Amino acid sequence: MNEIQEKLRRLERRDWGLWWAAVTVILLLTVAVVSLSLPSLLKESDHFFELNLNLAVRGLVGLVLLFNLYTVYQQMQIKRMRKEMAETVVKMASLQVSAEESYKLATLDPLTGLCNRRLAQQRLAGEVSRSQRYGHPLTVLMLDLNRFKQINDRYGHGTGDHVLRVFAERLSRVIRASDLAVRMGGDEFMVVLPECQPQQVEGLLERLGPVEYDFEGEKVSVTFAAGWAGYQRDETPEQIVERADQALYAQKRAQKAAPTSAGR
């Protein structure tokens, strides 16, 4: 950007230079014409005057030609600089696209498009710091799909990937813009919920519901287990995630102990 700004300033200076050169030439031509016409107006004409007039006209023509050549040269330089600027802009756009792609690879899960664990750690650390400083509520929600391995074994990994994408899309729709949905790995997800009390999570889970889809005419419903924890003062990000994980595994154990329960 600094390079482009410098080139723009150079172009502006060149344009102003051309304007001043044009004004100067016009003034010189005006003075020359007036000075040559004045003797004629005074009705003083002789051979010496005619000779000087001839030389002056030739000088004026030469001056105009030189000015035209200078103008053409400057326009060529300006055109070259504009071409260089255009190429620089294209390179910068390409670099920006590459940077965006690199950012996506570094922070987003390629299968679901949700944030990955690395970005989640950074965001959660920031939210914990904010809650500790200002006393704002913060909740971490952990989610795990039930019997996901059986889906992969029975229907194939392609179907399993489809289930993960559908669940991720559903999750993204039911959370707020300020929340952060994360795929932690496999069929495990996390949601960072700033400004959210733990008792508000039930409403989110109700909106999320089970994932249902048709597979070769067969309706398949995928449920999930959930566990969450609210931030406690002086707690580290790792500690709040660990408590949410413990709540998740406690619910999964409860679901296994009650096989008739359909889960969420």
Rg (C-alpha, Å): 38 Å
Q: Order of strands side by side in the largest beta sheet?
A: 2-3-1-6
Helix content: 55-70%
Principal-axis shape equals elongated
- Count of strand segments: 6
Low-confidence stretches: 260-264
Major sheet size, sense and barrel closure? 4 strands, antiparallel
The first-to-last residue Cα distance is 52 Å
This entry's quaternary arrangement is single chain
> What order do the SSEs take from the amino end to the carboxyl end, as H and E?
HHHEHHEEHEEEH
What fraction of residues sit in β-strands? 5-15%
The count of helical stretches stands at 7
> Helix/strand-derived class?
alpha+beta
Mean pLDDT: 80
Describe, in plain words, how this protein is organized in 3D.
The chain is α+β, with helices and mostly antiparallel strands. The protein is 66% helix and 14% strand. It has seven helices and six strands; from the N terminus they run αααβααββαβββα. The protein has helices spanning 2-41, 47-107, 117-134, 148-155, 157-174, 201-208, 237-257, and strands spanning 138-145, 180-185, 188-194, 211-215, 218-222, 224-230. The strands form two sheets. A four-stranded antiparallel beta sheet has the order 2-3-1-6, sandwiched between helices. The radius of gyration is 38 Å and the shape is elongated.
Question: Which characteristics define this entry?
Answer:
alpha+beta, four-stranded antiparallel β-sheet, two-stranded antiparallel ribbon, 6 strands, disordered C terminus
